Amino acid sequence: MLLYECIRIVQNWIRPYISSLVVGKLGCMLKHCIEQDQRAVENFTAGHGGLIPLTRWGEEIGRTTCTLWRWRNLGWITTLNVAGKLYISRQEIERFEARAQAGEFSRTPTVPRRGQSGGDA
User: Fold this and answer.
1) Does the model's pTM come out above 0.70?
2) Tens place of pLDDT for every residue, the chain, 121 residues?
3) Strand, coil or helix: what is 81?
4) How many C-alpha atoms does 68 have within 13 Å on its Cβ side?
5) Which of 31, 41, 69, 102 gives the lowest tally of CB atoms within 10 Å of its CB?
């Protein structure tokens, strides 16, 4: 979605100066370059050390970015920052899953007592 917004902004910005045919071709070229860069990053991370984007892993396990951020702050997972984007290694995922299966992160479920919800005063 962000990709198309960027292309549209660039096209609208240069439209008064260039013909619509050139604007359309420029948008296609820009889209192709961005997609090519994204594929290059994915290929690099797949082939080098088994790094995957943290957000992709979160989607795979059904967790939000907020949860992943919380896990990082608690020290439950270790991430790698590459050019401002967070990655997690396959070894770190395996380590996290082993710790989770061992019950390292488990807590006793708490049931709220009557009147603790804050809704009724």
Assistant:
1) no
2) 565 666 666 666 666 666 555 556 656 666 665 665 666 556 555 545 688 899 999 999 999 999 999 999 999 999 988 888 899 999 999 999 999 898 888 888 888 888 766 555 4
3) strand
4) 19
5) 102
Q: Count CA within 13 A, CB hemisphere, residue 34.
A: 13
Token pair, residue 115, equals 């009147």
Q: Which residues of 24-42 are buried (b: 16+ CB within 10 A; e: fewer)?
A: eeebeeeeeeeeeeeeebe
Q: DSSP alpha helices (H): ranges in the chain?
A: 2-14, 20-47, 54-61, 65-74, 90-101
* Structure-token pair, residue 108: 């006793």
* Spatial distance between the Cα atoms of 98 and 94, rounded to a whole number of angstroms: 6
CB 65 within 8 A of CB 75: no
Beta bridge partners of 118: none
CA atoms of 32 and 35, how far apart (whole Å): 5
